[in-house]
Amino acid sequence: MRFDLFSLEIFVTVAELGSIVRAAARHNIAASAASKRLSDLERVVGAPLLYRQRRGVSLTSAGEELLNHARSIGRMVERMESEMGNHAEGIRGTIRVAANTSSITQFLPEDLAAFAKENPDLQIQLVEETSSDILDTVRSGAADLGIYSGFTDAKGVQSLLYRRDTLVIAAPRDHDLAALKSVKFSDVLNQDFVALQQGSSIKNYLERKAQSLGASFKTRVEVMSFDGVRRMVQAKLGIAILPLGAVEPYLENSELAMIPIDEPWARRELRIAMRDRATLTVQAQLLLRFLAPHDP
């Protein structure tokens, strides 16, 4: 059996009002059109639903049973419309985000927690990737938004500024560099470095900078996380260049020293990438406006 929802709605109104004419007027259709829909319902059910009398109508036993089902279906449809409306308005749903280690370490936890508090029915699926992989993920449509380093070529996507951070030198506390107020990049290229794994935007950028100076960036150890980098530096396996937020909070309870880098590029951008802002879901638009409130 296939039931038309509008016909069921008319049937419920007829049952409540006891009149086809009055029910038709409530639904703004002709009485003949309402009567035709009721006849079609009876044909689908295979039994009479109404006793048609001069002063109105009453329900048969089949009509009484259908009325219970029709009311239940009506409540389900109302709930479905309400819940789907929540998705359309961005109140519910899932937002897929890919982010680099720098943004996750420094800013995203607090920002996403604040967003979740304001939007408790929205879910965020967050994956950590290198900046180049993040851009590929956004281009493919596998992520709605991607937070990446401004050092990375972002062809094929649109982007907005998320945050700015500052790169610094992390060195053992008893290292010769620890006594300096700042250093030029060229002055530390004779050092061994601890770096993030291949594909890291910071590492790739520093390698290019070193080449432009006619030198090499000597990576002694590669690890997967900022925590791993800090531990290797404390073990005196090399120095590292990290975001300030990945070093400064750990200075007091570690054997680390932090030295500013006297280079204009040490102040860098973290950006939010999307394939096309106009086609973002309502939910992703909400998060984008939250993370980049000053952009139009």
Helix-strand blueprint:
Blueprint: H1 5-17, H2 20-26, H3 31-45, E1 50-53, E2 56-59, H4 61-88, E3 93-99, H5 101-106, H6 108-118, E4 122-128, H7 131-140, E5 145-149, E6 158-172, E7 193-196, H8 201-212, E8 219-223, H9 226-234, E9 240-243, E10 256-260, E11 267-274, H10 282-291
Parallel strand pairs: 3-4, 3-5, 7-8
Antiparallel strand pairs: 1-2, 5-11, 6-9, 6-10, 6-11
Quick rundown:
Keywords: DNA-binding, Transcription, Transcription regulation. With 296 residues, the chain is an alpha/beta fold.
Structural description of this entry:
The protein is rod-shaped, with a radius of gyration of 32 Å. Strand 1 and strand 2 form a beta hairpin. It is 41% helix and 23% strand. Strands 3, 4, 5, 6, 9, 10 and 11 form a 7-stranded mixed beta sheet that branches. A two-stranded antiparallel sheet has the order 1-2. The chain is an alpha/beta fold and 296 residues long. The mean pLDDT is 91. It has 10 helices and 11 strands. The chain starts with a helix and ends in a 5-residue tail after the last helix.
